[in-house]
Amino acid sequence: MRQVFIILSLLVLGGGAIYQSEVKSKSLPTPQPILGQSIKSEPQQQHQAKETTKTQVQQEVSSQIEPKANPTIAQGAKAPAFELPSMDGTRYKFSGQRQKPLVLNFWASWCGPCRMEAADLQKLYEKNKGNVDFYAINLTKTDDLDSVKGFVDTYKLTMPILFDQDETVAKQYQILAIPTTFIIDPNGVVTYKVMGSIQPGVFQTELDKVVKAKK
């Protein structure tokens, strides 16, 4: 399953890792370790076969994602309420209005783009934690606790790490790829969403907007 996620990540969002919990393995072509690897050195017939397989995967990804996309979980939408346990045993609840804006980051330890943005996300948390809450929601059903703890230790994450153990919250937020990150204002409205790795400068600008609007 993790290999399918990693391979499909090459086909969308410049490297964002596909999160598709309901894709049946029989509906997808057998994945290769890395699409396009060493294509130039292969015979023409194998090259054509790889290109055909890649096209089929793209078509399958499109057919699976498009019917599930929920355009309401975007800017201006009310963010769904949830309650999840954290790594330290605390339960965190979101139910609409709150004192601070909230950042939700959906991730997994096996996700390459999640690793790429982890340090930037931690810096943003440290800079803004006085004005903004950050919840890093791990897709625990596709992960394992040892890897999660290793990820947190490696990148020295100090924000709350929440466990979405049965994908309930990921489904509520229509997560199609990870990382996906939301900014939610104090009224519980989504003001910004990015699917794929964040750009720290752009993300800080969006945080400044929502913090300024609160004052």
Automatic annotation (TrEMBL):
It comes from the Bacteria. Residues 38-47 have a biased composition (Polar residues). The keyword ATP-binding does not apply. CDD domains: TlpA_like_family. The lineage of its organism: Bacteria, Bacillati, Bacillota, Bacilli, Bacillales. The keyword Cell division does not apply. One of its GO terms (molecular function) is antioxidant activity. It holds the Pfam family AhpC-TSA. Transmembrane segments: none annotated. Residues 30-53 are annotated as: Disordered. This is Thiol-disulfide oxidoreductase ResA. Residues 73-212 form the Thioredoxin domain. Keywords: Disulfide bond. PANTHER family: THIOL:DISULFIDE INTERCHANGE PROTEIN DSBE, THIOREDOXIN-LIKE PROTEIN YNEN. InterPro entries: AhpC/TSA (IPR000866), Thioredoxin-like_sf (IPR036249), Thioredoxin_CS (IPR017937), Thioredoxin_domain (IPR013766), Thioredoxin_ResA/DsbE_sf (IPR050553).
